[in-house]
Structures are given as structure tokens and as C-alpha cells.
Amino acid sequence: MSNFEVLILGKFLLTFSVLLGIPLWQLYSLRRERRVEESTCTEDGRLDPEGG
User: TM segments (predicted)?
Assistant: First the structure.
């Protein structure tokens, strides 16, 4: 492989990793936000079955 081929392959790798990484990061952060919301609900006693 010449240096030019390595450069092109590196650019493809970087491009596709960014294009796939952004949606995956958004899904991860959305899941983390839902966990935080669920934990605050249980602290309030809304989802706790024995909290009544």
C-alpha cells in the first residue's frame, strides 16, 4: 500500500466513524436521561409500590 492509499482509507475510516458515532452517542445520552428521570420518580415515591 502506498501512502496515498493509507491516507484515503484513513479518511474513510474517520468519516464513517463520525457518521456512526454521533447517532450512537445520542442514543446513549437519551438512555442516560431516561435513567435519571426514572430515579427521580422513584425518589418521589410515584413508582414505588410500597410508598403508599
Answer: 6-25
